[in-house]
Amino acid sequence: MKAMILAAGIGERMRPLTDHTPKPLLPVAGVPLIGHHIDRLARAGFRELVINVSHLAQQIVDYCGDGSRWGLRIQYSPEDAPLETAGGIHRALPLLGAAPFLVVNGDIWIDFPFARLLDHRLADAVGAHLVMVANPPHHPLGDFQLDAAGRLRLRQGRERGVTYAGVGVYAPGFFAGMRPGKLALRPLLDEAIPAGRVSGEYHSGQWQDVGTPERLAALDAAVREARVP
Could you count the other beta carbons within 10 Å of the beta carbon of residue 167? Predict the structure, then answer.
């Protein structure tokens, strides 16, 4: 299975840190966020990686190179301007191949065992499988409901759900019929979930959406103090 790290965003909420440094290169305990991801993917057994790049793209390419120092191969999917999640994945499909692939947001911290998804088989050839986590304070209602059978359903009103962790396995067919260009992932999920095309699992371990300088600083301190693995 191939993996993709989403690394093309500008990181508006992280400014001024991202004015001169792309968000995936912001350090946690002295190592760029994307470096932690690549190391964990390599240790899990992934050997083919695609990274989409746009904002300050060359810095990411210079840091990651061809992936050989992690024992894997990296290919890049350039975007003139960030295409958002679904748009970026759609652009990268020729590099990702015909089999289901793992997608990891470049701006999260997670201790999920990626090896558990390495041989994941989607029940539906055009489906998706999402890793869900507890709702953070800044997103108290979550994204979707996850039932005991591992199926996702849309949240209703003020109903509390769980939050998409930014880690998922997608079949290429999930993006079939999508027009090239800028598109968020949520509209595709909102259409696919009622059709029963999206499964999920709950991760109770460490997770952080590194979306602001304050969250980055808190995570950095926690990792340095070994409160977070």
Answer: 23
